Amino acid sequence: MYIKGVIFDLDGTLANTLEDIAGxxxxxxxxxxxxxxxxxxxxxxxxxxxxxxxxQALPSKARQPEIVSTCLAEMIADYNVNCxxxxxxxxxxxxxxxxxxxxxxxxAVFSNKAEPLTVKxxxxxxxxxxxxxxxxxxxxxxxxxxxxxAILISNQxxxxxxxxxxxxxxxxxxxxxxxxxxxxxxxxxxFRTREELEENGAVRIVDKPGEIxxxxxxx
Length: 219
What we know:
Elements: E1 5-8, E2 15-16, H1 18-31, H2 50-57, H3 65-82, E3 88-89, H4 93-102, E4 106-114, H5 115-125, E5 133-137, H6 148-157, E6 164-168, H7 171-180, E7 183-187, H8 194-199, E8 204-206, H9 210-217
Parallel strand pairs: 1-4, 1-6, 4-5, 6-7, 7-8
Antiparallel strand pairs: 2-3
Helix pairs in contact: 1-3, 2-3
């Protein structure tokens, strides 16, 4: 296994985005008189795109298409303004990225967050990093765990999927990596549990960003 590239999930992997997501969703819910959720509750709601987040955050009786559509538009508008209020990189991410760059490892980001928001956050928090691609959810293109986006990025990297680490914090990421033929690496500092990562194909779970460098160093 010779690793030449790394694809990162964003939320819960590179950056702790939870408080800003929760804030925007709760403000949207409040406007409509719906119950709010604790910040930690959002750990189970993120990862499958904002449309899924909004649907799951709404009371079951309110999950009609027109209400979901209205709340989704309002949540995205709020989040676009407030996505970088409390969002920050996890400790050690900058140093890990720097080490990978020094090793000439090709890097990319692939998120189920809407692509404009994904690009906005990455450009702010990781300015200057020469990512081959920063990809998010797009209309009419399958979200993770469908592997099409990951495979497309591997083609843009000009690296075989088997020579790429896919780093993420959820079942969605591990399934995506496995389906794409990549090496699935879970991170323990994100929004989901070690058990979820192990059950969905993680080859290894790392507890600190520096361990990702060690995986590549030993290949």
